[in-house]
Design brief:
This protein is mainly α. Helix content is about 85%, strand content about 0%. The chain has helices at about 5-30, 40-70. Helix 1 (about 5-30) runs antiparallel to helix 2. It is elongated.
Length: about 70
């Protein structure tokens, strides 16, 4: 397997894991399950940070896809 294909597979897996993590965080926030462990501000910050991470991962994935054809 080529290194480009491995990189593509790795970033795709990371995107999927991050999407699941984000959904879990959002569900915990909606249900108030974070209470006692984190403040509301901390939870919102964690969700926002995870969204940004997902954007970065998607950017990397798209960049790899564009360069994969070369």
């Amino acid at each position: 397997m080529e290194i480009k294909e491995r990189a593509n597979n790795k970033i795709w897996a990371k995107i999927n894991v991050t999407q699941i993590h984000l959904k879990d965080l959002q569900k915990e926030y909606r249900e108030g399950k974070y209470l006692g462990r984190l403040t509301e501000e901390q939870m919102i910050s964690l969700i926002d940070t995870t969204k940004i991470e997902l954007e970065v991962l998607n950017y990397i994935y798209k960049t790899l896809e564009l360069n994969y054809d070369r």
